[in-house]
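Quick one: structure tokens for this chain, please?
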Amino acid sequence: MEILIKAPVSQAVFKNALQAMAVTLILLVYNLANTFYQTDK
């Protein structure tokens, strides 16, 4: 949270946007793996 206080607005927004994109890509990979490796019960 310190970056939101001390950094310029554009830098803080860019850093948070990169983190959000990284999390979205991780969730995408997880969901694709979950789709293809489901076990039918």
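The mean pLDDT is 89.
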